[in-house]
């Protein structure tokens, strides 16, 4: 672990080498992988087999290059253990990225930078690049209704802001989809698509999203499983049946003395009770010792 003093950071701050990083992400297809088995450090507690095999060498190809050329990349990745042949991931292609720092250009020219930096794996319809992929997720998030103040900007500016918000939301959803630790602090709900499939008895989809695999070494422990999802909340389902029935029938009231007469209790009216001088009160009686009388 390295330490960076405050004075050293502000004297020579860390500057980004890529601007507009989101628009520079590239989709790659995984063609193969080889696990990188790390040597055991005898001075530390032994790691599990899965932890030792998390680092992997991936063979990648740009999705746009498939069928056009045979250019491939081989790079080590910290998320390599999640990948298998045919998976789609996103990352930075540093071979064609324009850097904003001359030092980064020199490092690339000298071969000190990798060709590809893999960021995350894509799942489901997003990985297949299907139309309306966001609506085909098996999970969803709930949000509170908020009132947005009227903006004085032009219609074009409002449209650009809406598009930016949609991109931010999609990036957040993809990050949630690929980070189990992040999801542990959140509630994920079953989407309408999943509920519809379950209602029609689509067992193929259930098995597909359940993530059940025979080979434990290839299991993706970051993929969303069905047992993580909660039943969707019905925010606009209306009141419960009992409350709705009470509202229809109206409040049930009794006339004065009616409830007492129904329960067999002696009733005295309010005006008569005010004129009573000697009121009937309960007289305490003790039964102590009666069981021992001869």
At a glance:
This protein has 294 residues and is α+β, with helices and mostly antiparallel strands. A five-stranded antiparallel beta sheet has the order 3-2-1-4-5, with no helix packed on it. A three-stranded mixed beta sheet has the order 6-7-8.
What does this structure look like?
With 294 residues, the protein is an alpha+beta fold. It has 11 helices and 8 strands. It has helices at 6-11, 49-52, 102-109, 124-127, 155-177, 180-183, 192-199, 203-210, 241-249, 258-262, 270-275, and strands at residues 25-35, 56-62, 73-77, 88-93, 116-121, 139-140, 188-190, 229-230. The strands form 2 sheets. A 5-stranded antiparallel beta sheet has the order 3-2-1-4-5, with no helix packed on it. A 3-stranded mixed beta sheet has the order 6-7-8. The longest helix has 23 residues, at 155-177. It is elongated. The relative contact order is 0.08. Mean pLDDT is 76; it is low at 211-216.
């Amino acid at each position: 672990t390295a330490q960076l003093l405050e004075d050293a950071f502000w004297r020579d701050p860390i500057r980004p080498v890529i601007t507009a990083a989101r628009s520079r992400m590239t989709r790659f297809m995984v063609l193969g992988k080889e696990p990188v088995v790390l040597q055991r450090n005898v001075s530390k507690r032994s790691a599990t087999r899965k932890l030792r095999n998390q680092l992997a060498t991936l063979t990648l190809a740009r999705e746009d290059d498939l069928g056009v050329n045979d250019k491939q990349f081989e790079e080590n990745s910290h998320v390599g253990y999640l990948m298998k042949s045919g998976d789609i991931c996103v990352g930075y292609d540093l071979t064609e990225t324009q850097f904003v720092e001359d030092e980064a250009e020199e490092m690339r020219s000298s071969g000190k930078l990798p060709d590809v930096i893999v960021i995350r794996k894509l799942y489901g319809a997003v990985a297949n690049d299907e139309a309306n992929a966001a609506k085909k997720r098996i999970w969803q998030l709930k949000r509170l209704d908020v009132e947005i103040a009227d903006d004085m900007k032009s219609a074009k500016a409002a449209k650009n802001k809406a598009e930016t918000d949609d991109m931010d939301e999609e990036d957040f959803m993809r990050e949630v989809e690929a980070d189990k630790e992040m999801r542990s602090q959140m509630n994920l709900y079953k989407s309408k698509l999943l509920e519809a499939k379950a209602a029609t008895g689509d067992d193929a989809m259930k098995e597909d999203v359940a993530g059940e695999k025979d080979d434990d070494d290839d299991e993706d422990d970051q993929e969303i499983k069905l047992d993580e999802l909660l039943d969707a909340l019905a925010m606009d389902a209306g009141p419960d049946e009992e409350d709705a029935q009470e509202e229809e029938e109206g409040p049930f009231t009794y006339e004065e003395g009616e409830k007492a007469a129904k329960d067999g209790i002696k009733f005295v009216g309010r005006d008569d009770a005010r004129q009573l001088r000697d009121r009937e009160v309960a007289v305490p009686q003790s039964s102590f010792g009666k069981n021992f009388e001869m």
